[in-house]
């Protein structure tokens, strides 16, 4: 199940990234302090009402002469729209309608994706509608006055946007699990693909992926379907002339983004290399469920302790994904290959899992009782008012607290451990978002999806 995508389009400086920050702002509070985290991601998770989505900003580059760069904007927009369910076309209400807006609109009208026009920088509610009115001329339906800086009008605009997302039932009906086989060259990805699909040759069918030359394969086991992502990328043999490393890693990054579960293939003879760390960073960044596939187990001389020693060493090195499942296999002899899809099922289930607010607050209550939050030197103690799961894939829990700064990393890790201990979540990352909130707001129930419960 892939989250639907919302693409944000518009000329430079209209406020696209400000808007994306506002919509996905909550999710940005996630702190990554693991090594190898990449910062170039433009796909951000967000939600509005009961809908989860990914929002992608197509801009980020500011040009002096924007007319000259219309083709560039179009190209960026085309890439984003290709995968999107709906686009937000952002225009600048302060500057008014520009020739470039009209050109972009003309092009957008030829696309099949529905578009909502957001007239940004309309801070004043009264003037907003007047400012927005001239954008009817774009011929793309009602222009919504918004202010990305203040947040006004964004709610009405998003109400319209989510109307165009596929319904929850449509998204959930496609319960195919997306699986990416990721790893450095030569760790045995192609061999694993063969081992996985070979035994089920009869029911393997290639299906076209989202990018031109990506080939996905569908594997069915009982009722469950698995989409093996970009198998063409796995099979392609490295071509040293083309800088295969670079080409390969970008391809891997794309496959990770489209997956639910990553089979992260390592070569047991090499252990975890720098390149592996880079891939691991991206997998974490994207919040995917992970199975560490430790391949070439047949080539290791072993006694009864060997497997535990390897396990320990790998967990140490990949400490930031110590929740990942691990399987020692041989793609060549087929040893334990038949266990992989069982684990994929298990990981996909925890990745999609939703836990009720009352259960989450039980865990918090218990955790806080055992180990109270730190107290600052001024004697002020951290307080967790309540928590609630705000999205799945991966499970993301917002914790409403008096002051996020009072909760140090140690305590944050403790709380995460308690969630894992009490609720499980094998094979998936979980994200905790620490949000400061005033008691008064909590009591008024401001902004809380459920009635606030103090814990
Ligand atoms: P992008 O190039 O389209 O991503 O635009 P940015 O998000 O970087 O914003 C460009 C400029 O417009 C920045 O100086 C922002 O502070 C400003 N800006 C963005 N949103 C608003 C808004 O809602 N109101 C006002 N007045 N300025 C805004
Ligand atoms: P890829 O580049 O990750 O797709 O790796 P390949 O599947 O092409 O495998 C690279 C090399 O490792 C080949 O020579 C394979 O024969 C070898 N190899 C793959 N899996 C295993 C395994 O389980 N055991 C051993 N001993 N060698 C393997």
Task: Considering the chains and any ligands shown, give keywords for the structure.
3 domains, disordered C terminus, globular, alpha/beta, Rossmann fold, binds guanosine-5'-diphosphate, single chain, GMP Synthetase, Chain A, domain 3, 6-stranded mixed beta sheet, 15 helices, 455 residues, 7-stranded mixed beta sheet, 21% strand
Describe it for me?
This protein has 455 residues and is an alpha/beta fold. The protein has three domains: 5-164, Rossmann fold, CATH 3.40.50; 177-351, P-loop containing nucleotide triphosphate hydrolases (Rossmann fold), CATH 3.40.50.300; 357-443, K homology (KH) domain (GMP Synthetase, Chain A, domain 3, 2-Layer Sandwich). Helices cover 36% and strands 21% of the residues. It has 15 helices and 16 strands. Strands 8-9-10-7-11-12-13 form a seven-stranded mixed beta sheet, with helices on both faces. A six-stranded mixed beta sheet has the order 2-3-1-4-5-6, sandwiched between helices. Strand 15, helix 14 and strand 16 form a beta-alpha-beta unit. The protein starts with a strand and ends in an 11-residue tail after the last helix. The relative contact order is 0.10. It binds guanosine-5'-diphosphate (2 copies). The site of one guanosine-5'-diphosphate has 16 residues, from helix 1. One guanosine-5'-diphosphate binds at residues 10, 12-18, 59, 62, 120-121, 123, 147-149.
Q: At the fourth CATH level, what is the homologous superfamily of the largest domain?
A: P-loop containing nucleotide triphosphate hydrolases
Tell me the number of structural domains: 3
Mean pLDDT: 82
Tell how many strands the DSSP assignment holds. Answer: 16
- The CATH C-level name of the largest domain is Alpha Beta
Q: Might you state the CATH topology name of the largest domain?
A: Rossmann fold
Count of discrete alpha- or pi-helical segments spanning 4 or more residues? 15
